[in-house]
User: What shape does this take?
Amino acid sequence: MPPHRPPENADYTVPDILAWLEANGSAHNIAGMARFGIHTGNAYGVGNTVLRPFARTLGRDHERALELWRTGNREARLLALFTEEPGRVSPTQARDMAHDFNSWEIVDHAADLFVDAGHLDELAPDFASDEREFVRRTAFAMLAWAAVHLKNRDDADFIAFLPLIERHATDPRNFVKKAVNWALRQIGKRNLTCHAPALRLAEKLTASDDKAARWVGRNAVRELTDNKVLKRLASRRP
Assistant: This one.
């Protein structure tokens, strides 16, 4: 069944939104999400391909996003992230939200928002030092997003984050090591200036005595030495 379409320019309250989510929910989707490691303890089972267009209909609203987040519902929290006003998200709000992180899916979208809000430099080291798995993942998801989307940032800023990646490459937890690897690969693929130091770190990690670090390094080396990646980087040479 296709999703119920909201009226154009609908002025939805949070109860309206929750009712819409319930109407568009699917137990089948919930089961599928769980297989991908998405936390579904409080979920309606509405996929992102439906949530994204709905979020565009809603538009951005800071106060409503805060209220949606407080519901604790998966879809409501994603809508909060999709419709938040980045310029009104403070580091304090981001830290408060991080206390609730329980899924890689929420983390990765929140990381995008925190970067867009301008908090990469303050929050990435802060979150990386946090022992909680999903909070630490946030730091490296932020770096991965920023390396791609902050095109006007100095390359030196990203190279300066490589020691942070090296420091936490030994974290064996699945959602952390994958994000550490992701950040390293994205920095390395940013351009030729970033590629060389990122590849050096990746090669260094492959020789580590630590199993997690070796995994991070090998995976990054494989991508950063791929011919298609190298050709794409060479085509961007100034």
